[in-house]
Amino acid sequence: MDLSAPIQEIKGIGPKTAEILHKAGIFSLRDLVYHLPRDYENFQQAQKISELKPGKVTVKAKVEDISIRRMRRNLTLVEATLRDKSGAIRVIWFNQPYRAKQFDAGKDYYFSGTMALSYGRYQISNPSAVLADDYDMKASMAKIQPIYPARGSIKSQDFKKFMSTIKESIALIPDMVPNYAGRADALFDVHFPETVEAAKLGREYLATEELFSLLLAAKLNRDDNQKLRTQPISGDIEALKKFIKTLPFKLTNAQRRATWEIIQDMEQEVPMNRLLQGDVGSGKTLVAALSCFVAARAGMQAAIMAPTEVLATQHAETLSELFGEQLNIALLTGSTKHKTELKKHIKKGDVNLVIGTHALITDDTEFSNLGLAIIDEQHRFGVMQRQKLLAKANTMPHLLSMTATPIPRSLQLTIFGDLSVSILDELPAGRQPITTKIVSPNSTKQMWDAIERELSAKHQVYYICKKIDDKGASELSNVKKESQKIAHQFPNYNVAYLHGKMKPAEKDELMAMFSNGEIDILVSTTVVEVGVNVPNATVMVIADADQYGLSQLHQLRGRVGRGSDASYCYLINSNSDTPTRRLREIEHSQDGFHLAEVDLKLRGPGELYGSLQHGALDLRIATITDTRLVRRADELVKDFFKSDYKLSDYRELSVAVRKYQRITTLN
Ligand code: ADP
Ligand code: MG
Questions:
Q1: What is the rounded CA–CA span in Å between residue 406 and residue 590?
Q2: In CA terms, which of 331, 510, 516, 579 is 20 to 30 Å from 238?
């Protein structure tokens, strides 16, 4: 069967099943074949409970003291003790209530799962389980059983059946990467392994194949970029130095270095494509401002695009104050008045620097000579939006993308080839670390006391709550409810709330009030996450903190600790007794890079890039941190170019590479 054949052609897949699979992104035979097992059942190597070590474990044991608990938020816990002759261990299943009734007392079962320390004792979480007698009988037929990730109502067992049906097609699948034989064997071993080792090697082959497509795409993108030409901008270094001397503070070394790297890039004919990465609060805005100054001095226009109206407005205010009369700065957002008039000025070239939101890229916004485009919080924009901004220039402009979502160093080279990256790895002098604490919802007194102290010291507080609560109440009613509670608690302070559905003008007004101290406590959803800067705010409370990703928590926390006063971040855990690994990590580290690496390990790069870029990196098999496979794939890419292969001769490979080209491009 052709790999592109639709799954409906497979026996046993009717229209209903097909529909569910389509929703999961499985359309063709190829997609199905690449739906790989997430694990294997191999109960043959059961260990004694007394000899277990943390990690993947398999035991043959009886079940005792099984109980079910219903927690908040639709969470159920089934807990039990597993006992064999050597000892006992606790087991826990999350949201699998049927486990409570699954086991016959006195019968042996195989359990296979991960053992880890939780609150000082070891437990096995979410193990799979089978009746030992059943398994021992069947085991003589197939030694190792794949476990497939379920998709909707389609369970592992169903996928097993589908794979058996197409077993012969799998064995005949042609190689995809030139000079890299063994694809059919690899797929076969992954789906029908004889040994655990064979499955592992098969998976490595497929991971390498996947990395090859990604690396090839990155390389092609880079080559395309090198062919572009633009107007070089020669920096007036003397004027810049003079301007820097007028600043109320000294640049950090990192800011100095990044600015210098940018100036040098802009002097080239090949358009700059640089990513400015800096942890929250590292001072990216100033580097952007200095770059704009240089461009404007050379007679070119610059544009800064920010993801929210609040942020664009704040940037415009900051930069207007910074430059005074020296630059002509315009703010262009959805709620800007007299847009037509302003756009005329931009088109004529009266304006040096335009700061705005998506309003910058509407069709009727034209520039006279846009030379430098800056995208703040670049991961908030899609590829198309970035391209639209670049298209506003007569030739390709220089591009500076800024992000606080750190790309782990281990990923940079791999994914973006030799894309230039400047890193602000230093915070401005005088900053104090943010004290971070995990708070159980039942013991918040200390936190409120601390908040009281900060308020009476004339500092301000952010209180973040979730957009949607358990009962699906709206964002508005949620923030409203919380702010009423808090206002009741602190009658002498001004409490206000902010949410995503508010009109931009309203949001701006509130942010402005918070910024100049008229509001003491701002209750908000994550809309404040991006970029805003209120140095007098010293407390960040995040309710239901366990529901957010690590990077997002770090971003939110970064809203405080921006001035010279000590700051505090309280993470309220919605599940009172188990702080997640993520929460514990963020409690102990303030290093965005470290947290990104941890996030990468905990969630995989797909997740990380989900936030980095709208099109996720979408590696399904490989982990980019496996340097051994990355190196192998890199060699294959080099071979590919040496041997003068034509991508167009490899249909399937072209498809894969094109997907990654869209993902790995920064412009
Ligand atoms: P981010 O990198 O998160 O975008 P910002 O650019 O908003 O950070 O800067 C955070 C704060 O640090 C701002 O109040 C800014 O004025 C201040 N800042 C920037 N650079 C310096 C510096 N070199 N010394 C002292 N404060 C600085
Ligand atoms: Mg910023």
A1: 12
A2: 331
**Residue 285 alpha carbon to ligand 2 centre in Å:** 6
Residue 627 has pLDDT above 80, yes or no: no
> Which residue lies with its CA nearest to atom 20 of ligand 1?
283
Closest atom of ligand 1 to CA, residue 249: 24
The segment(s) of the chain belonging to CATH 3.40.50.300 are: 237-424, 435-589
Whether 80 has a pLDDT exceeding 90, the answer reads: yes
Short-list 453, 446, 487, CA closest to 566:
453
Ligand nearest to the CA of 378: 2
Domain at 237-424: CATH architecture: 3-Layer(aba) Sandwich (3.40)
Q: Could you tell me which residue, 159 or 113, shows the higher pLDDT? A: 159
d(CA 648, CA 139): 46
Nearest CA to ligand 1 atom 26: 428
**Any idea which ligand is nearest the CA of 377?**
2
- CA of 257 from ligand 1 middle (Å) equals 15
**Cα 286 to ligand 1 centroid, rounded to whole Å:** 7
| Signed CA dihedral, 613, 619, 625, 631: sign only | negative
**Mean pLDDT over all residues of the chain?**
87
Superfamily of domain 43-143: Nucleic acid-binding proteins (2.40.50.140)
In angstroms, rounded to a whole number, what is the distance separating the alpha carbons of residues 318 and 3?
A: 56
474 vs 402, residue with greater confidence = 402
Q: How far is the CA of 397 from the centre of ligand 1 (A)?
A: 26
Give the pLDDT score at 593: 77
